[in-house]
Every structure is written in C-alpha cells, then in structure tokens.
Amino acid sequence: MSAGTELVSVAPYDSSSQAYSRVIPKASHPFDTREFVNKLEEAGFHRDPAQAIMEATRALLADRNNAMLQRALDKTDLENEAYLFSAALSELRTELQVKARNDAASLRSLTTLLQREVDSMNQKMREDINTLKHDIQVDMNNRKSESKEEQNQLEQDIQDLHNRFTISLSDLKTEIEQNIKWDATRRSLALVFGIAAILMTTIMLADFFTRPDAEESEKRKNGSMTDGSAITGETNLPKKAEELGLVPQYMQDGSRFV
Q1: pTM (two decimals)
Q2: What residues does each domain of the chain span?
Q3: Mean pLDDT by 10 residues, the chain (258 residues)
Q4: Is the distance from CB of 48 to CB of 37 less than 8 angstroms?
C-alpha cells in the first residue's frame, strides 16, 4: 500500500436488463489510508490489524458507493422516467376518457330505459286511477240509489205507521166517547133512580109519620060530620087527600107541616 491519500474507484453499473441503458459515472472519494492506519496505531492497534481494518473500511466504502450509484438517477434517467410517466398518464387519460364515454353511453341507455319504465308506470297508474274513479262513481251511484230506496221505504213505513196510529187514535177516541157517553148515561140513570128512590123513601117516611095524625083527624072529622049531619041534616061530600092530611105539605121556608 502506498503512503498518502488513495482514491477509491467504483466500476460503472451495467443495466442492460432494463428498458433503457444508463451510464453511471466513475466516482472517486478521497480516503487517506496512511492517516487512517496511523490513527489506528495511535489507538493501540498493531500494524497488521490496523491495515486489515483499513482494507475492510475501504471495501465497505466502495460497496456503499456502488449501491448509492445504482439507486441514484441522473438527468437522462429522470427524463426517461418523466417520459414514461407522461406516456402512462396519457394512456391512463385515454383509457379513462374511453371508459367515461362508455359509462356515459351505458348511463344514457339506462336512463332511457328507466324513463320508458317510468312512462309505462305513469300510464298504468293513470289507467288504474281512471278505473278506480269509475268504480267509485258506480259504487256511489249504487249507494245513492240504495239510500234513496231506503229513504222511500222509511217514508212509506212512517206513513203506514202514521195511518195506523191515526186509525188507532180514532178507534180509541170513539171508544172513549162511547165509554164517556155510557158513563154519562149510567150516571144519569143512577142519579134519576137515586132521586126517585130518595123521593119514594121521603114520601113513605112522611106517610108513615103522618098516618096516625091523619087517622085521628079523620075520626074527629067523621064524628063532627056525624053530629053536624044529624043536626043540620045535610050530607057532606068527601074531601081531597090534601084536606084529609094524607099528603104532607110544606111551607115557603121548606119546613114541613101536616
């Protein structure tokens, strides 16, 4: 190993397997091997271990440098990647436009189909509504006719009931009038018979109480008549019942006297 600074060189990376080729420039990094070994010896390492550590460090730097160069992109790679991205984006845009047109056509077809179905349903609904209106109108007319017939029948029943009630009322009135007339006649007859019975009873009682006085008076009158006829020789005619005292007589104030 030569003393001084050593340049670590990395071989270019060949990417022939990719779609495009790129050339990675050779990179050189300053690495002072002598200074590195001296630092290791000062740290307590011997000469051989220090050189081994230096070789390992240089190999590690070379590997990391190569890996970094493989992952890095230069301007050409960036332009290629941008071109590929633009191409993919254009292809995606075209595909999206085609898909959007196809979706729009499908949507228009579906919209047209739905519009036809909606029109058909509207037509069917209008027909059903018209049929329902007709059925409702027919039912209403039938119900009106039935209601009118029921009303006429009810009026006829009311009229019949009124006629029967009038006839029954007339019969009841006639019966009541007959009962009233019969009651009046019966009461009149009862009153007449009662008055007659009272009169007969009064006459009989009056006759019963006045009979002894009348007989005594008649005897007195007969005796006086016998004496008078014998004296005067005249014949007296028989007197009336009132004069004989057979019928009771009354004064103006209603008091009875014989």
Answers
A1: 0.30
A2: 5-72, 206-226+241-257
A3: 42 39 48 82 84 86 79 73 90 93 92 92 92 91 89 89 85 81 80 85 78 66 55 46 50 50
A4: no
